């Protein structure tokens, strides 16, 4: 058993690695050299990455891929995608190509409100509390002026502040429920700073309110924090085309394809086990763009899945219909994204990803990201209802298996050729590789 370490964050990087090596890696020089292998030669760049978090010992790479030919609202885009799963970028590119000759994707931001809450306890007369909150609203707004000034110059700021009575669900529990417009920033720090100020003012005003009883004066703030559930920060992405244009070859007619596709979506609408996997496919596209553009994928994931359960049962994010011989496939999702602030001006690859997207506004990035999710779901369902998912998946995964087995470039070439005509499984690849090597 190793002993707990004190003052770990005060050690320098080499000392941290030495401690790790001595205590957890059997003093393995090979393990340490793996960590060091990922250090960047450019010291400034490395320092920048070291300082993103505490106790950095190395960098963790993910591939950055490009999915070209995305026609969105009449304009072509190349999507930068950061993801490790072999088939995702290939699937996105395929879906983009499929739809760009069928009118492309349409996307619109529906609304763009962010939410924050001051959660507090109050014991006493609700009408007196209500009066106090109404009376101090100008004071609350004034108290955050130094924080909101710049945001207001950009057209954003605090939209409204409401008092919510939650005492039916939890004794003495109330909220200040605040809506924000954070323009092109995701706005987490802005929102949290405003909320903490509101909390301070609220407690002080309660304490000095002459009409409050002693008990009422003891209004107690529990916490102040933004919500990652943003059902009023949503975007719609859709594609449509005549049913008979859905077919690409003679294996399946457009009508058969549309019917089977819609059935697959219906299953995800009513069956939570399937809906989770279905939506995971949507998130393959969304997360990859969210990560590449330096946004908070945990926040997006949390918000999207909560939205998928908003009617009390977890369900599909996407929907499909045929009306008047027109196939329509769409999705509405909440996406709180930013194109300024945070990592966007700090991480060189994030900056580049935003350049690749032609410096979008937050709203444009919401549209592009939603399209990536819809495209990914389209590609997954298309495979699932026709060839099955494994054909494309294993084709992409072949390279991983070959790399795991240290295949040379010549071996890789031969194996790729061989497996264009044979079924790929982990064991069939190993078997063929061994055969070739012997
Ligand atoms: C795999 O990452 C995603 C899929 O499972 C999505 C789906 O089943 O729709 C293929």
UniProtKB/TrEMBL annotation:
<protein>
    <recommendedName>
        <fullName>3-hydroxy-3-methylglutaryl coenzyme A reductase</fullName>
        <ecNumber>1.1.1.88</ecNumber>
    </recommendedName>
</protein>
<dbReference type="GO" id="GO:0004420">
    <property type="term" value="F:hydroxymethylglutaryl-CoA reductase (NADPH) activity"/>
</dbReference>
<dbReference type="InterPro" id="IPR004553">
    <property type="entry name" value="HMG_CoA_Rdtase_bac-typ"/>
</dbReference>
<dbReference type="GO" id="GO:0015936">
    <property type="term" value="P:coenzyme A metabolic process"/>
</dbReference>
<dbReference type="InterPro" id="IPR023074">
    <property type="entry name" value="HMG_CoA_Rdtase_cat_sf"/>
</dbReference>
<dbReference type="Pfam" id="PF00368">
    <property type="entry name" value="HMG-CoA_red"/>
</dbReference>
<keyword id="KW-0560">Oxidoreductase</keyword>
<dbReference type="InterPro" id="IPR002202">
    <property type="entry name" value="HMG_CoA_Rdtase"/>
</dbReference>
<dbReference type="InterPro" id="IPR009023">
    <property type="entry name" value="HMG_CoA_Rdtase_NAD(P)-bd_sf"/>
</dbReference>
<comment type="similarity">
    <text>Belongs to the HMG-CoA reductase family.</text>
</comment>
<dbReference type="GO" id="GO:0140643">
    <property type="term" value="F:hydroxymethylglutaryl-CoA reductase (NADH) activity"/>
</dbReference>
<keyword id="KW-0520">NAD</keyword>
<dbReference type="InterPro" id="IPR009029">
    <property type="entry name" value="HMG_CoA_Rdtase_sub-bd_dom_sf"/>
</dbReference>
<comment type="pathway">
    <text>Metabolic intermediate metabolism; (R)-mevalonate degradation; (S)-3-hydroxy-3-methylglutaryl-CoA from (R)-mevalonate: step 1/1.</text>
</comment>
């Amino acid at each position: 058993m190793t002993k707990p370490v004190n003052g770990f964050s005060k050690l320098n990087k080499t000392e941290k690695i030495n401690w790790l090596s001595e205590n957890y890696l059997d003093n393995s020089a090979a393990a340490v050299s793996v960590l060091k292998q990922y250090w960047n030669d450019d010291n400034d760049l490395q320092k920048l990455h070291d300082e993103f978090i505490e106790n950095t010992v190395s960098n963790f790479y993910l591939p950055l891929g490009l999915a070209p030919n995305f026609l969105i609202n009449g304009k072509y885009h190349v999507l930068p995608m950061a993801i490790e799963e072999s088939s995702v970028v290939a699937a996105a590119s395929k879906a983009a190509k499929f739809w760009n000759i069928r009118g492309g994707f349409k996307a619109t931001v529906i609304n763009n409100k962010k939410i924050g809450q001051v959660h507090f306890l109050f014991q006493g007369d609700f009408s007196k509390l209500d009066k106090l909150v109404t009376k101090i609203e100008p004071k609350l707004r004034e108290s955050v002026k130094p924080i909101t000034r710049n945001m207001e110059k950009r057209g954003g700021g605090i939209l409204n502040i409401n008092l919510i009575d939650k005492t039916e669900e939890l004794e003495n529990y109330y909220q200040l429920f605040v809506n924000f417009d954070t323009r092109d920033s995701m706005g987490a720090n802005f929102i949290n700073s405003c909320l903490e100020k509101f909390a301070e003012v609220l407690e002080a005003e309660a304490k000095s309110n002459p009409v409050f009883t002693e008990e009422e004066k003891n209004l107690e703030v529990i916490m102040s924090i933004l919500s990652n559930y943003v059902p009023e920060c949503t975007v719609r992405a859709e594609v449509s085309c005549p049913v008979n244009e859905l077919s690409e070859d003679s294996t399946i007619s457009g009508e058969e394809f549309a019917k089977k596709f819609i059935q697959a979506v219906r299953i995800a609408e009513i069956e939570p086990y399937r809906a989770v996997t279905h939506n995971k496919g949507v998130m393959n596209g969304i997360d990859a763009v969210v990560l590449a553009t330096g946004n908070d994928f945990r926040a997006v994931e949390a918000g999207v899945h909560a939205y998928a359960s908003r009617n009390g049962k977890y369900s599909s994010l996407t929907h499909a219909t045929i009306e008047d011989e027109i196939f329509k496939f769409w999705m509405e999702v909440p996406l709180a994204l930013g194109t300024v602030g945070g990592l966007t001006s700090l991480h060189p690859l994030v900056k580049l990803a935003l350049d690749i997207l032609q410096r979008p506004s937050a709203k444009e990035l919401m549209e592009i990201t939603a399209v990536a999710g819809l495209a990914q779901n389209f590609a997954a369902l298309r495979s699932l209802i026709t060839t099955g998912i494994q054909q494309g998946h294993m084709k992409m995964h072949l390279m991983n298996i070959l790399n795991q087995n240290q295949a040379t470039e010549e071996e890789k070439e031969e194996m790729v050729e061989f497996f264009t005509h044979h079924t790929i499984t982990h064991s069939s690849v190993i078997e063929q590789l061994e055969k070739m090597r012997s």
